[in-house]
Structures are given as structure tokens and as C-alpha cells.
Amino acid sequence: MNITFLGGTGTVTGSKFLVSLEDGKQEFLVDCGMFQGYKWLRERNWETPLFDYRRLSGIVLTHAHLDHSGYIPRLYQLGYRGPVYCHHATRDLCSILLPDAGRIQEEDARFYQRHQLSKHAHPEPLYNGDTAEACLELFQPVAFDEPVRIGNASLYFQPAGHILGAGSVILEADGKRVGFSGDVGRPDDLIMHPPRPLPALDLLLLESTYGDRRHPQIDHAAQLAEIVNTTVSRGGVLVIPSFAVGRAQTLQYLLLNLMRDGKIPKLPVFLDSPMAIDASEIYARYPDQHRLSAENCSFMCTGIQYTRSVDQSKALENIQYPHIIIAGSGMATGGRVLHHMKRLLPDHRATILFAGYQAGGTRGARMLAGSQSVKIHGEYVPCKAKVEMLEGLSAHADYKELGDWLLQSKMESGTGIQLVHGEPDAADCMRLYLQDNTPFKARVADYREILRL
Q: Are both 306 and 284 inside the same structural domain?
């Protein structure tokens, strides 16, 4: 068995691992993510694939986030028609995430053309909403622990926490058992159950997003309340760039609880993301995967004002009193949040609150680093608003939580670990931590490296 690292190395985006079996007749991808962040990374999405998609026997998808799934419509556009195996909840989430990503790209392309902001006379999206809708016909959902056969390979998904449907892939082929962690959730996540410990493995591909930091042990609800109250006291608007799946639902739940308990004033809260609106409703379909009761799910979806249409989104600029806007995307790389930021960043009364990991090269990362201006739609907007980070809400386990998860597994001493899905510093710190605190042998995977088992 060979594994080729085609993404998720040196970065937290573009996860893509090509598995080739000994017989040479079977090749398949584990994850098929879109590159995000730095321009040189995003340009990889437009390049000719580094593998022959016509030879693929399938795509195995750990979960729905675009850095793991967002390249599937591109492959479909190029001609891929093989199966995509994933959990049922992943399929449901992809049915909103992927078409939304395509439509956002279409809207951005039209905006850039209309305002002549592109070097191209006719800027094009990587793929459009119709293509993303069409690729969903390839999805073949399965339950956790349900076996899947791809030629001579057998695999199954086991719960990884993180978001609905997220699973670690356990693959058996050519006499080896290999695990692909996907994104691993936290043991004390507000909404999701903890990840299940791994079985015995010969090799594990392990994420390292938070390989260089611990999640602070703070009261994130109290921190959120302080940020809301401070913004209200200035008479400002609170804008929260948010990932549509997982983070938006947690924020809704926290804000409504704070209002109910009288810790923040009862403000209008607008969920300005059709994708997040639909995702919130999906949570009620899978009560076994999260900690929320049916009553809590209903509570999470009430008290929030949904703005589905573009006109409803634009109308928010007419509100003159303090309010809260939750909008995509979580790293401020695209979507409706850019229009709100463009309008409100110059306002010293406003607050931009990030609530999740910000990959290098994204607007979010630059703003948190103290940038005095940020480029939006081809022009630099002065950053006079307060920029904050809500700590402790990440859906990724940190290095200590990952290490504890591994020690709960049935993996034997000396099991090899390839670290992926992390910025260079994070991945190397994760390597050192595992070296000093676990019996496992870890190294950092390289882009386009071929690992032979």
C-alpha cells in the first residue's frame, strides 16, 4: 500500500490523501478538500490534479467541512463519477455546504466583474452551485461501523466528535490497518460527544491543527458576555464570522442562554447564512451524535432571526441600534460577512469577533495579528473596529487532548504516526509532544510525499 500526501501538509486546508493498493488496480482518496488561505495555496485548486481521477475507485470523506470536501465538485466538473463514501450526516451537511460554496464563488465572480476588481475580464468560479448540487448524486452514505468495500480494501468510520457525521477512517488492506483521524473533537465539547478511542493500527494519519497550543481553561460564556456588553455600551454592532457547521450552532446556543439568564441584554441576533440556518435544522435529525436534547435543539433555533435572501442581508445595514450578526465564513475568506465587515470595520464602536481557528493567509489571521487595514473586494478597508478572539470554542482537540486520546487507544508502542493538517510550527510541536509523552513514533508528513507501507 502507498499513501501520497496531496494536501493537508504544511497547512490546515486541502486535506487529500491518495491510497494505492499493491495490486495497482485500486486507487482512492481519503478526503478531497479545498485549499484556503494564502494565494499560493488557493491557486492549487486551479491546477491540474496531481492524480488521475479516472483511476479512482472512490472517495472516502471524513466529514463535511470544505477543507476536507470542497474539491469534490471540482473533480465532478472534470469528469469524476465514482462513489463518495461518508456518514449520513456528512452527506446531509454537504448538501448545503457544497452548493453554498459554489454559489458564493459565483456571487464573488459577478461582483469582481461588475466592479472591475479582477485582472481577468471575465472572472470564473472554481465551480458553480449547479455543479456542486450535481456532485451530490455520487454520495453513498453509511452508518458508523458499517463496512465499506473498495476492491480489496475494507474500511469503516468511527465517531470522531468535531461536527455531525465526523468520523475517523479505519482502513484494512494489503495486510495493514491504517487510521485516518480526520478532524478530532474535544472530550468536553459543548455540543458534540467525545471521539471514540482508536483500535490497534499499523499507521495513523493524525491531525495537528492545535499541535502547538492548549485551549485555555476559561469560561467562554463569560468572555462572550463581556464582549457583547462592551460592544453594546459603545452603541456598536457585533459581527461574528462563523463556520456554518458546528460553530454557528454553538454561538446561537450560548447567546440565547446568556440572554435568558440576564447576563447580556436581549438583542436582535441575525443568522445571516442560509447554510448555517439549514445546518442548525439538521442537528435535530441526529440526536444520538450530540449532547443537545430535542428541547435544546428547538431552543437553539428560536430567538434567532434568519436572513436567507440577499435583500434581507442588505437590509441589516439600516439598523441603527446595537445588534449581533453571525455570518459566514469563519475565517472571513468569503461570503456575506465580508459585506458586513466592509461596512463596519471603519466604525470604532463595532466589534469583529472571531470564534475559531484562523489559517495563515486568511483575513482573520491578519486582523488578529493587528493589521491596520484589510483588503476586501479589491480595496483596503481601515480597521478601526475592535477585533477580538473568543477563546475555548474550537471543535479541534489540542495537543494534550490528542495525546490523551491516543493513550486511550489500543495502538501498540511504536505505532507510526504521520502528522497532517497543521501549520508547520503546530505540526512540529505536536511531533515533539508525542515523542516526549507517548510511546508512538511521530513525524511530519511532506507535501507530495509517497509513503510506502
A: yes
